[in-house]
Amino acid sequence: MDIQKMKKIRINKIFTGIAILIIIVSIIYFQNEIPNVIRFRAIIIYDKTIIHAMNNISDLIPKDEVLVASTNAPILAYFTRHYVKTPYGVSSKESLLDYYNKRNLTYLIVFENKSEVEALKSLFSSTGLKDLDNDFYKIANYTTDYSKIYLYQRKIFK
Predict the structure, then answer these.
(1) Residue 157 Ramachandran class (φ > 0 left, ψ -120 to 50 alpha, else beta)
(2) Does residue 35 sit in the same domain as residue 84?
(3) Number of C-alpha atoms within 13 angstroms, CB side, residue 22?
(4) Of 20, 41, 152, 156, whose CB count within 10 A is highest?
(5) By residue range, what is the domain housing residue 20?
(6) Alpha-carbon distance 105 to 139, whole Å?
(7) What is the pLDDT along the chain (158 residues), one digit of tens a residue?
């Protein structure tokens, strides 16, 4: 066998080994990320009572109102037929109120103990929700199979 063929075979083996290594690393990384991606959304799939809660929320809110949600904005938008925002960039109750004032928003939907905005997790916790009472009216709350959902309306001060 000549040297050129041996070099080609060796290079092919090296590239094959690198490709296999990349696949193994990708599989391991994917396995570690599955819980982060699916954690709460998978629970919603199995929640048999959440659609009823979303329909009730939709009935309570005027059709042209924009909703702000602690999490699950796409799911809320689908079932309530409202435009739903997640308050990204908000880091405290004060900045949440500023977010509402700047955008002329009224309604807030909170999934207790769940928030896509890391800084708001304590505000949307079971103990932190009490801090909303001075600035929001609690219109309704729903207990579904896997969640507690609260619907708030911003108090307007003149």
Answers:
(1) beta
(2) no
(3) 6
(4) 152
(5) 1-46
(6) 15
(7) 576 766 777 888 888 999 999 999 888 877 776 655 555 555 556 677 888 899 999 999 999 999 999 988 888 898 899 999 999 999 999 999 999 999 999 999 999 999 989 999 999 999 999 999 999 999 999 998 888 999 999 998 65
- H helices present in 47-143, as ranges: 50-60, 73-80, 93-103
How many residues in the chain? 158
Token couple for 114: 């769940």
Q: What is the CATH number of the domain that holds 54?
A: 3.40.190
pTM over 0.85? The answer is: no
Kind of pairing between the strands at 107-111 and 84-85: unpaired
Q: Are 84 and 70 in contact (CB under 8 A)?
A: no
